[in-house]
Amino acid sequence: MDEFALIDRFFKGQGVSRKDVLLGIGDDAAVVRPADGRDLVITTDVLVNGVHFPESTEPAAVGHKALAVNLSDIAAMGATPAWATMGLTLAETNEQWLEAFCTGFFALAEAFDVQLVGGDVTRGPLTIGVQLIGIVGEAGCLTRSGAREGDEIYVSGTLGDAGLGLQVDSGMLTVAERDEAVFLDRLNRPLPRVELGRALAGHATAAIDVSDGLVADLGHLCESSGVGAEVDVARVPISDSCRRYLAKVGWEPVLGFGDDYELCFTAAPDQASHIEGLSHELGLGIVRIGRIETGTIRWVHGDQPFSPHAQGYRHFR
Amino acid sequence: MDEFALIDRFFKGQGVSRKDVLLGIGDDAAVVRPADGRDLVITTDVLVNGVHFPESTEPAAVGHKALAVNLSDIAAMGATPAWATMGLTLAETNEQWLEAFCTGFFALAEAFDVQLVGGDVTRGPLTIGVQLIGIVGEAGCLTRSGAREGDEIYVSGTLGDAGLGLQVDSGMLTVAERDEAVFLDRLNRPLPRVELGRALAGHATAAIDVSDGLVADLGHLCESSGVGAEVDVARVPISDSCRRYLAKVGWEPVLGFGDDYELCFTAAPDQASHIEGLSHELGLGIVRIGRIETGTIRWVHGDQPFSPHAQGYRHFR
User: Fold this and answer.
1) Which of A1-5, A238-242, B34-38 has the lowest mean pLDDT?
2) Domain extent at residue A226
3) A302-316 b/e with 16+ CB inside 10 Å = b?
4) A122–B46 C-beta distance less than 8 A
């Protein structure tokens, strides 16, 4: 099967057909028709075999994650995802692998009404680059740079499960079976917080998705906004499964690992009840972990100073 | 240098700043503001080290080519390139390599008023994925599917130089020094036919960029349009340098190799004088090589039947 047959079989005509896509896969480029007066957000993320996911990861999870990490960026902008392209580099044409990979990718794409409009399939070390374009709503988009002194800092869901999943997957940590399922599911099938991000537009002052670890990502947000913060690590939301291993593994998987793809955002104090309402509406925990201040970021644990050693994942040091 | 420092040093704030980019590199996604009523075209192409370019290729040429192949797709759609993102996977942070790579990339981006608005830098085998979004003009865009019986078939520039460049580069072919310069320049620094593509919108009936070889790409165009053709290989435009080696190497580098990134397009016979005018205006040869017919594609050489063995580059067979 050459790449043209491969594209025809696995990608062309798969998934949703959006009305604003005039021409999808199969020409030199796709053609889309944006609604008048709407800004667009554009992001891209690359997953490399053995770097972003272990070689043993099931292909459906790889397909899911390749889109999920991009959806998470669109979520952090408070926009609605729409059109994706994919650069897929494959060492070989393993049809079974491709079938499962596409199942994972297109199931998530369908859930968020994203159409894959184009791509490129080439030969080489397994690498998946996805580019995603989203549409900004009437309330405008969220950025990292709008946090102001006195804003509250929130985190959605729980942090740390994906980090423990990686430790379990790599054999560094042994856990009970039910906890293993929780951790590996979070690692392999992160659920991007698209609805939350969209609902926060017009209400939050700044947002970022936690993809490099809370310490690093809150650092990015504060740096972009030119502010500091006081953050209480005891308030950082973690799952019951994660709590069982906290004494053993420490805070590193919670604060220094980002693959949970939750949102960290800031909002003025008068938004507190709105955010509480959102949490109920979406069935998603949203916890206040601190407050924006001037100066630097100070971490505490209750009323004690705390030093987070985690610095987030770096590809190059 | 970690990837954040790398992005700051080599990518952030580099190149042109377009007015329609509200937020560039440095947030979770870029924000752009499309003009009302304009469709967009979206494309992506990936270059893999050792597959799309020899390991020895100078980094500035790699940077140039990574954008050029995408510009060529936008050209084939008759659109104007605008916003790019890059997924850059690097085995190591070689600052000298990155500096030269960026020089090549941004020089071409500036020439076509393209702004790099975002990207992702990761660790892994050297792979460069670029995604490019273009803006469709008032005359609409070109596709592969509009060719009709009786249309003339044209090719811009010359074909074969890049194919000979690859043979020279890989040591398969030895040529005179001045010819070597011509061939390697075409291989490493293809000039996408953006102005031509844009000028053809509203005049051509179908277009494709020759990236897989003329035989393959004209095949794609005819298949998409549901037509056949008669093509005279003796009319296919080749450079004087290429002509000197034609007897030795045969038609394969001319017909079966695509890296010249010329445009192949079709137009009704009444467009002939307009196209001739375009050729003069752009200082770019445009040659009629055949005519669209019903049925299949028949190749001739003057009045003799001709069988092109070249089938175009396939990543997987």
Assistant:
1) A1-5
2) 152-305
3) eeeeeebebbbbebe
4) yes
Whether B141 maps to a domain, the answer reads no
* Band of pLDDT at residue B3, cut at 50, 70 and 90: confident
Which one of A51, A79, A118 has the shortest CB-CB distance to B44?
A118
Residues of B in contact with A71 (CB under 8 A): none
Same domain, B156 and B287: yes
A12-31 residues touching B, CB cutoff 8 A: 22-23, 26-31
Q: Are residues B115 and B205 in the same domain?
A: no
Contact by Cβ (8 Å): A178, A163: no
- Gap between the Cα atoms of B311 and A52, Å rounded: 36
Place of tokens 């993102």: B85
Name every chain B residue with its beta carbon within 8 A of the beta carbon of A2.
Answer: 314-317
Residues of chain A neighbouring B89 (CB-CB closer than 8 A): 46, 48, 127
Tell me the whole-structure pTM to 2 decimals. 0.95
Q: How far is CA A75 from the centre of its chain?
A: 8
Complex ipTM: 0.95
Does any domain span residue A72? yes
Q: Identify which of A3, A46, A209 has the shortest CB distance to residue B314.
A: A3
What residues in B contact A55, CB-CB < 8 Å?
A: none
Sheet with B286-293: strands ordered across? B204-209, B263-267, B152-156, B286-293, B228-232, B297-301, B304-305
Which of A74, A101, A135 is where one domain is finished?
Answer: A135
Domain co-membership, B42 together with B179 = no
**How many domains are there within chain A?**
2
* Residues B117 and B230 reside in one and the same domain: no
CB contact under 8 Å between B3 and A315, yes or no, is yes
Per-residue pLDDT tens digits for A212-232: 899 999 999 999 999 999 999
Nearest CA distance, A32 vs chain B (angstrom): 5
**pLDDT, tens digit (0-9, with 9 covering 90-100), for B65-86:** 999 999 999 999 999 999 999 9
- What does the radius of gyration of chain A's CA atoms come to, in whole angstroms? 20
